[in-house]
Amino acid sequence: MSDPNVSGQAYGFLAMMPIKDGEVEPLRAYLEGFRDRGERPFHSVPRTHMARFVIVPDFHNDKRWKQRKEERLEIPSLILSSNLDLDGQDLDSYLDELAEGFAPHVADIWGRCIGGPTDPQDLKVYLKHNQIDCGFFYAAYGQATVPKVKASLAQRDKLMDFATRTQGMKPAALQKAFIKEFPG
Q1: Which of 1, 63, 71, 124 is the most exposed place for a label (fewest CB within 10 A)?
Q2: Alpha carbons 81 and 13: distance in angstroms, whole number
Q3: pTM reported for the whole predicted model
């Protein structure tokens, strides 16, 4: 049976951790502070395609959805969702990179969760303990690694810049400029 967290060489990681009583708002303020402080801690984890933190106070139950039963969270929870490159490596190595990249933030994020670590050395074990299978994971570019996606986006930007700069050129001059700009 295939792994429900894998799509191509990409992996979908999901962990759900209960937040300590009285820590929801301080945790929210800390996470929102990344934007305010201009910090981008996931940039220090280079195999990350995209990731997010979400604080879930409770499940949304709506009778129109014809759920079999109403479900409730007893405790608000922090969800970490990350789409990452495996590229011949394993989840453990990614979680090691995550722990290293988030080392200054471990106590302020996961230390506010029940049983959460304050030391980066303990983060991988905690995240794996709280991991939930995605059930179904699809990566839009499942075979493309983060460096390949970044290179493709840079190439697209270069092409768009070229197209903007060369508007109105005669065909022969445009072809010559294109070959010079994009050799090979």
Answers
A1: 1
A2: 6
A3: 0.80
